[in-house]
Design goal:
The protein is an all-alpha fold and 143 residues long. The chain has two domains: 1-54; 56-136, no CATH class. The chain is 80% helix and 0% strand. It has helices at residues 3-26, 31-53, 57-70, 72-84, 89-106, 113-135. Helix 4 runs antiparallel to helix 5 (89-106).
Length: 143
């Protein structure tokens, strides 16, 4: 089995499971339970997406790029501290501010960091898929 066939098979399996999950939620007769099932679906979606889509190097690169984009505020403070010189008072303040920002982003309480990284990675990967599909020649089926 070629790698592209394997990736397509995984993609189809993922799409089928997502469709089955959504259909299961829609079949719930109780509106209250259906609402909470949709809430759970939206909470779990980024993690399910990560599990199914980080199986090739392109997806891993999308996640790394997304991670670097969202944590740029932290690295900006550390870079400014490096430019000022590590031992100066200004650098100590910059390192403190950068560390405080990093603690906020890394904390699970109230920080949307993982969701932001995941959804940005989804967007980057979908853009790459659109670009790569435009480059591939379309197959013409003759009947």
């Amino acid at each position: 089995m070629k790698k592209s066939e394997y990736v397509k098979k995984l993609e189809e399996e993922y799409n089928q499971k997502q469709k089955a999950w959504k259909d299961h939620i829609r079949e719930e007769p109780n509106r209250f339970k259906r609402f909470w099932k949709w809430v759970w679906y939206l909470i779990a979606f980024p993690f399910v997406w990560l599990f199914y889509n980080v199986r090739d190097w392109r997806s891993a690169i999308c996640i790394v790029v997304s991670f670097l984009l969202w944590s740029a505020s932290v690295w900006g403070f550390y870079l400014a501290a490096l430019i000022c010189g590590w031992t100066t008072d200004a650098a100590k303040w910059l390192i403190g501010i950068g560390s405080a920002v990093w603690v906020w982003w890394a904390s699970p309480i109230g920080s949307p960091f993982i969701l932001c990284v995941t959804f940005t990675a989804i967007g980057i990967k979908s853009l790459l898929n659109i670009i790569s599909n435009k480059k591939e020649p379309k197959e013409i089926k003759e009947e």
